[in-house]
Design a protein that fits this description.
By secondary structure, this protein is mainly β. It has 2 helices and 14 strands. It has helices at residues 129-132, 204-211, and strands at 7-10, 19-21, 44-46, 51-54, 65-74, 86-90, 95-100, 107-112, 121-126, 137-144, 149-154, 157-162, 172-177, 189-197. Strands 1, 3, 5, 10, 11, 12 and 14 form a 7-stranded antiparallel sheet that branches. A 7-stranded antiparallel sheet has the order 2-4-13-6-7-8-9, with no helix packed on it.
Length: 220
């Protein structure tokens, strides 16, 4: 696995298939300030009502298996609060995928799969302050409806897992990064190297590859 196979969504500096909405004036079109142009990598800074909209064609082949990974550094000026770092809906407005990082109760929630009636599979765990704000943390969220496993990995190590989660994830029609699809719950902080695959990434070598995409020189 080389980190590109089965790649559905990859947001980077030169991404041309995603629309950045409600950028704050003076925020360098959403890229975090204080990061020199000499660096190879820059992060997306969210604050207020800005978000990234992804075309649904990106997930046309997604149904039973998904992996979502990214770096995040929550804004300590706002967190903990109700946040949505990523959400996807079907045509009926049902939640298919969702990540709260965190919710106001300091839990990280990973929702994936839908029964067609609005019910979805969920796992969650209470996070420490250092895990969701003020520090760069790498998160990987995995769902395999065939085996029933849902997992959350933090910095390449399994952080939460549960089985018997078999709702599928097809039919995605609306996708947002940095806010809920309804536009009422936003993320405050930096997100970097956001990627989504229609395959399962759980092997230690693959997780470490994701985690090490940004090394100790990652901007803080």
């Amino acid at each position: 696995w080389d980190g590109t196979s089965n790649l559905a969504v990859d947001i980077s500096l030169n991404a041309n298939n995603a629309a950045y909405v409600n950028a704050v004036s003076g925020d360098n079109s959403g890229f975090a300030s204080g990061i020199t142009l000499a660096q190879d990598d820059r992060s997306r800074f969210f604050e207020g009502t800005d978000f990234i909209s992804i075309p649904s064609t990106a997930t046309a082949n997604l149904d039973s298996v998904v992996t979502i990974s990214f770096w995040a550094k929550g804004n300590a000026a706002y967190l903990p609060e109700n946040t949505t770092v990523f959400e996807a809906w079907d045509t009926a407005g049902h939640r298919v995928l969702n990540i709260h990082l965190p919710w106001s109760d300091q839990n990280v929630y990973w929702d994936a799969g839908n029964s067609g009636t609005g019910a979805y599979d969920r796992i969650n765990k209470a996070a420490t302050t250092a895990e969701y704000e003020g520090n760069w943390v790498h998160w990987t969220f995995v769902k395999n409806a065939r085996t029933g496993w849902m997992r959350i990995f933090k910095n390449g190590v399994q952080w939460r897992a549960a089985v018997n989660m078999r709702r599928s994830m097809g039919g995605i029609a609306k996708i947002r990064i940095g806010s809920s699809c309804g536009g009422d719950v936003f993320y405050d902080g930096n997100v970097d190297d956001f990627a989504m695959w229609n395959t399962e990434v759980t092997a230690a070598t693959d997780l470490q590859w994701l985690y090490k995409r940004i090394d100790a020189t990652h901007p803080n």
